[in-house]
Write a structure and sequence with these properties.
Blueprint (H helix, E strand, L loop, with lengths): L25 H16 L6 H23 L8 H16 L5 H23 L4 H21 L9 E2 L5 E2 L3 E2 L3 H23 L2 H11 L1 H6 L4 H27 L1 E2 L6 H14 L6 H15 L6 H16 L4 H9 L4
Antiparallel strand pairs: 1-4, 2-3
Helix pairs in contact: 2-6, 2-9, 2-10, 2-11, 3-4, 3-5, 3-9, 4-9, 6-9, 7-9, 10-11
Length: 330
Amino acid sequence: MAMNDAGAAGPKTADDAPARPAGMPMLHKAIFGILLIFLLALPFLVYPIFAMKVMCFALFAAAFNLLLGFGGLLSFGHAAYFGGASYVAAHAAKVWGLTPELSVLAGTAAAAFLGLIIGALSIRRQGIYFAMVTLAFAQMVYFLSLQLPFTGGEDGIQSVPRGDLFGLIPLQDNISLYFFVLAVTFGGILFLYRIVHSPFGQVLKAIRENEPRAVSLGYNVNRYKLLVFVLSATFAGLAGATKSQVFQLASLTDVHWSMSGEVVLMTLLGGMGTIFGPLVGAAAIVTMQNYLATLGAWVTIIQGVIFVIGVLLFREGIVGVISRWLKRPL
């Protein structure tokens, strides 16, 4: 996969090439298995809409973690892909009359295209300049979402029909929709896991740790950065498009800069650069928002206090610290 500027193969020697990862460790298989069993039972234990919201944000955080935790690129504008896909999917379902799977695919494709355009321009900068450029583009997407006629302005796109999956399975029932969301989310997370543990993922880690060395080995660093940016935007869009089906709504909240901040918080709280950390962080933040909603504005203050405590006690995130205790990557 790695090509130098002259088009030759990447690493100069076999010793310098990233080792091909082995199969999924038994510990990870066990965690995924337990997680799947838990998620299959979850809609019968809690309100299904809440459970689906947790899953959508877990996928969103996992997608962001691919860019930040494994690519080393901090984006402050991931709400653009999450919310942009939400608008496109909602419009596709309500106006174009597409089935749920096609409307979600349409939103995901829109996020991938948006990520390609923004990523191609953003990766020319590094560090805080990269982060600020992504925030600037996200604000442009927010402005367009407010002004374009098909988005509904401040009202958003409401009453999005859920439709029939593949034209056969009605998703009006929350339980049926839940298992569709479960398939999308769990499949997306497994795909992200495969990306991280592929040779491509190993090169990403090498670039994150020592970019000049990766360049010296012949890797086209900007190509890898752009690809991981597009992949992260695509899966963030998949999460946003799915969320629009769950809540039958696409609104300005999805593209607001605070949404970008929330996904950063989820990733850092759970454990940046870990597989399961973003899932834990997303579950924690969404649970607080749901069960502390009666406190009004105090929710954000409580989130801030918990985040500060988490940073002080779990400097590597919740899963990061647990992983260090077990001395095994999670």
